[in-house]
Amino acid sequence: MRCRQAKVLLERELDGRLEAAGRQALQAHLQQCAACRARGAELRRTERLLAAAFVDHPFGEALAARIAAAATAGAAAAPTASRPAAAGPERAGARARVLALPRQARRWLGAGLAAAAALLLVVLLGERMRPLPQPRGGAGLTVARLEGMAPTAALRVERAGGGPGGYLPPGGALELGAGDRFTVESAGARLRFADGSVVLVRPDTTVRIEQAGPGRTELAIRDGPGELFCAVAPRPAGSSFAIRTPFGWSEVAGTRFGVRVVAGQAVTTVLEGQVRVRPLAVGGDGGVSAGAAPPLVLTAGEQGVLAAGTAVRRRLGPAAAAAELAWAIGPAEAAAGSRAGPAAAPAPLPQPPAPAAGEGGPALDLPVEPPGSEPR
Amino acid sequence: MAERAEDAELVAACQRGDRAAFARLVERHLRLAGAAAYAVLGSYEEAADAVQEAFLKVQHRLGELREPQRFRSWLYGLVRTTALDRRRRQRREPAAATPESAALERIADERPAVPEHLAHAELRAQVRRAVAQLPASYREVVVLKYLDERSYEEIAALLGESISAIESRLHRARALLRRQLRGLVPEREE
C-alpha cells in the first residue's frame, strides 16, 4: 500500500467507515511507515479537538424555552406580514441620514461654521426622539412596562423578531414582552412588572427580556457593560426571576439586589433576601454552564463576583452593600445601612421623575422575602 | 422514513394551532438549526438569536410549506437565509467584539492561574476559531458533523449532494484544520 492510499484509509478509520480488510491492510502499512503513523496520531488529536469543540453549544433547553416564550408572544401579536411595509425603508432612510451627516459636519466644522453643528444636532435629536410606531396592545402579551426615570430619558427599543423599534417618546411608556430589547442612553429607566417587581436600569445599559413566562422571568445584560437594580416581589413556588450576564445568572425568589457588568466580570450586590449566582463557562454564553464553578447563594450584605467561569463571594456588610446601591435606593437608605422594616420606599434614582398622576408617594413599596427562605 | 412522517404530523398539528407540537418541532430540530446558523455566523450568541428569529418565521410561514415531510430541509434553508441576512446587517453595522472573544482576550491577559476547566474552554474556542476560518462549504460540513453530530449520509441528504462529495470536503477541511491546530495538544498525549 502506498502512503496516499493509507491517508484515505486513516480518515475512513477515524469515521468508523473502514471495513475489516481495509483495516488489516492499513495496519500492515502503519507498522512499516513512521510518517503515516505520525499522520494517524495527528489526525486523532485533531479529531478529539473537533469532537470537543462544540460540547458547550447553546442550542439546548434554555434556547428552546426562549423560543417558546417568544413564539407565544408572537402568536398573539399581529402577524409579520401585516406590519406596515413602509416601516423598514423609512427606518433605513433615517439611519442613512444620520450616518451621512457627520462627514459633512466635520468638513463644515473645520471651516468654522458653527451653524452646521447646530443643524446636525437638530437632525440627530429628531431621529433620537422619533416615537415608536405602535405600542404593543392587548392584555396578557406583555410582562413589563418600560418608562424613563426623567423626561430627558432616551430609551431605544428593539422589538422581538425584528419588528419596528425606535425611541420611547419623552415621558412615554411602553409595554414590553419576551425577546424585546432596550438600551438606556441617558437618565435611567424603570421596568415595572405586573407582580409589582421593579427593575431600575442605569444609563449605557442594554437589557433584553429573555424569558417572560409564568415560570420564569429572565432579563439579560449581554451587550457590553451595564448596571441595574432589582426589587423583586415574592414569587409563587416554582417561579424564578433571573438576571443573565455573559458570566452567569443571578437568580432570586423575592429580594432586592443589584447587578453590575464591567470589563471581565459581573458583580451582584444583595441588599435583602437571598440571590443565587451561577457562573457560566467561558465561551459558553448561551445557556450552558457545564465546566463552570458551582453556584453560590448570597445573603444580604454580600457580593458575588462572576468572572471567567468562577464565582467569588465577598462579605461587604449591610452598610457597604447599601452604599454600593445608593444610586438605586437613595441616599437616605444608603446612609442608614439598609432598610429597617418592610415596605419602606426606595427612591427612584438616579434621576427621579415627576410623580405620575395617581401614583403618589415614593416609587416602590414591595413586600420582602421572609428571612431564611431559599431562592428558587 | 419515520422521522419525516413524524415531522409531517407535527407540522399539520402546528397548522391547526397546536403550540405543544410547535415546541416539539423546535426541540427536534434546534441543534440542526443551531448548526446551520453557526456555520454562517461563527458565534454562539449570534447563532442563537438567528435561530430564534428563524423559528418565529417558521411559526408564521408553516402554511407555505407544501411538503411537510420535507420540513427539515425547509427549516435548514430558512435558518441559513436568516443567518445570512444577519451577517449582511452586521457587515453594514460592524459590532464590537463578541462576549466570547472578549472573554478569551481577558483570559490571555490574566495568565497564569487559569483553572483547568477554563483552559479547556479556551481550547474549544480556539478550535472553533480555526473552524470559522475554513471556506464556507467546508465549514458547513464540519459544523454539521461535529456540532449536530450528523452522519455523512444525513449531511449528504440535507445538502442534496453525494456522500463521496461530503467525504472529500470533510477530508480537505480536516487537512486544513490539522495544520492550523498543530501544537494545540502536546504529542505526548498520543
Summarize the structure.
The complex is a heterodimer of chains A (376) and B (190). Chain A is α+β, with helices and mostly antiparallel strands. Helix content of chain A is 31%, strand content 26%.
CATH class of the largest domain in chain B: Mainly Alpha
> Helicity range of the residues of chain A?
25-40%
Rg of chain A, alpha carbons = 27 Å
Could you state the order of secondary-structure elements of chain B as H and E? HHHHHHHHH
Structural class of chain B: mainly alpha
Cα distance, first to last residue of chain A? Answer: 64 Å
The number of helical runs of chain B is 9
What's the main sheet of chain A like?
Answer: 9 strands, antiparallel
Shape, principal axes of CA atoms of chain B? globular
Oligomer: heterodimer
What does this structure look like?
The complex is a heterodimer of chains A (376) and B (190). Among the domains of chain A are: 3-53, no CATH class; 133-336, Jelly Rolls (Sandwich). In chain A, 31% of the residues lie in helices and 26% in strands. Chain A has helices spanning 3-14, 20-32, 34-53, 61-76, 87-110, 114-128, 318-324, 326-329, 331-336, and strands at residues 144-148, 154-158, 166-167, 173-176, 181-186, 189-193, 198-201, 205-212, 216-220, 226-231, 240-245, 248-252, 256-262, 265-272, 274-279, 296-299, 302-307, 310-315. In chain A, helix 2 (20-32) packs across helix 3. The longest helix of chain A is centred in the first third of the chain and has 24 residues, at 87-110. Residues 77-141, 284-289 and 338-376 of chain A have low confidence and may be disordered. Chain B is mainly α. Helix content of chain B is 76%, strand content 0%. The longest helix of chain B is centred in the N-terminal third of the chain and has 23 residues, at 19-41. Chain B is globular and about 55 Å long. The model of chain B is unreliable at 94-115 (pLDDT under 50). The chains are: A alpha+beta (376), B mainly alpha (190). Chains A and B meet through helix 3 and helix 4 of A and helix 2, helix 3, helix 5, helix 6 and helix 7 of B.
